Amino acid sequence: MPNALEILKQDHRTVEGLFTQFESSQERSVAEQICEELDTHTKIEEQIVYPVLRSDVSGGEGMAEHAEGEHAEARQLIGRIRQTKDDDHLAELVGQLKAAIEEHVSDEEDEVFPKMEQELDASRLQQMGDEVESMKG
User: Under a CB-based contact definition with an 8 Å cutoff, are residues 22 and 31 in contact?
Assistant: First the structure.
């Protein structure tokens, strides 16, 4: 059974693949799939990962606040993507979302996740992984 951080990294790879797929297809259905994946992913991080980051990881409060700010930016772009009817504007918005998500993924995978792996024991990360799996359904 993967731990929480492994599952979240896999989510990151899934979304990166969807962005690549959108860039070649420009299909609205792919853009919608990106939005759905990110909706689920951000909820999981905010409900399961960030509370632990805040309480059990040194410097975690600041990291969680920064990440939540990035989530707010992503949610705003997702709302605009879902509302636009113009395909050119859709491509522009998806491009902006991709740039924001790339920065967020980089922050998490280069700073936040290694710090969590260093300061939390394997059983805690495993338990969080179980919570993530059950939230995904």
Answer: yes
d(CA 30, CA 42): 18
Give the integer Cα–Cα distance in Å for 29 and 45.
24
Can you give the residue ranges of every domain in the chain?
Answer: 4-131
Question: What is residue 90's three-state secondary structure?
Answer: helix
CATH topology of domain 4-131: Four Helix Bundle (Hemerythrin (Met), subunit A) (1.20.120)
Cα Dmax for the chain: 48
pLDDT tens digit string along 21-34?
Answer: 999 999 999 999 99
Q: In this predicted model, what pLDDT tens digit does every residue of 69-121 receive, in sequence order? A: 999 999 999 999 999 999 999 999 999 999 999 999 999 999 999 999 999 99
